[in-house]
Amino acid sequence: MPLIRFLPDNTKINFVGARYYAFALDGLLVLITIASIAIFGFNLGIDFTGGVLLQVKSQQTIDVAQVRGQIDSLNFGDAEIQYIGGGACDTPAHSCVLIRVKPKKGQSGEEAASEIRAKLGPSYTSRKSQVIGPKVSQELFHAGVMATLLAVLMIAVYVAVRFEWQYGIGAVVATGHDVLVTAGVFSVVHWGFTPTSIAGLLTLAGHLINDTAGGVGPIP
Hints:
The protein is an alpha+beta fold.
């Protein structure tokens, strides 16, 4: 049987002729990204803003949706709840969860933890609680941003040394552009920006070096 062809063999698409439309669209995306980050910033997660981390265990499998409903009724905002395992948490499976919340205005971290414990009731045992201060959180955010910027810069340096300096400039522009627009998506749609997001941006920058190095020509 012949292979199914979605496009005929003689298809001709003038991509070069449409470059100005692509430039205009890309320029609009960059402007939206810069404006959104400058005006709205990022929806920083608890790791970047400070908050309370509370580990609790039950004698039976925990229904995360039920726990989320209980926490949401306390009006903490966006709570992060996830299963954790290891040790006693594996008996039974999914019997421990990690709860992350940002204290209410004027509320201390310990007061927030106590309110959560009271809401969950005696069927949950508190295993560990930790309060992350805003200063430490801001330092973590700044370190993540600097790591991303340095990654893009070092990619440009590598390309400039391995090939030619002109390619290094192109690499920093291309890689920086893609990382910036991707970060802008978090700001525009107001997704939670967490350390995982920073790791994703760094991974993106790492993958881009493969395309960049492969596109500048053969290795001398």
